[in-house]
Design goal:
By secondary structure, the chain is an alpha+beta fold. It has 4 helices and 5 strands; from the N terminus they run αααββαβββ. It is elongated and about 90 Å long. The protein starts with a helix and ends with a strand.
Amino acid sequence: MKLTPKTFLAIIFSGLFILLTGFFMPTAGFAEEEYFRTSNRNIFGRIFYPERFYARPDHYEFLPQNSNRDPHPAAGAGQEWDPRQWNPKWTPDVVIRKLFKARVFERQYMRNGQIPVVELGPVFYELSDLDRRRTLKLVVDHGAIFKRGYGAVELVDWSTRHVVGSYTPKGMFLN
């Protein structure tokens, strides 16, 4: 095999490039921990998982249809509020009044006398998913809606008056 001058120069420069980047890259103007914090990330900051080496994790891609599903099924287990741990002055009645006063919920009513409805206020959307579920569970359990034979509670937006989801004995489902 004959080595042309062009091939020879390409081999030399590629070897030199590999040598210099491997030698200077971790400490080129920033600390080594910053290098490892940004390694395997593309220019947008997303983690790069080479498919041939790693299996993609379940949470790799955002799917809006599954926004209410935790990446780990047992992540919310044991996260319910226990009113026994609250301040003794805070009964469930007082807490629900405070939630309505803070505009987490706007009102609660029966549509056509058949469907229980909770109108969500503007502050409801600022809560975490866990706190949304907790507050809804508190309001629904305090009203004993499921014990009265209803299978679901409609969740209605306070400004548009459109149905944005439902709350069932299995949990909260937002559209």
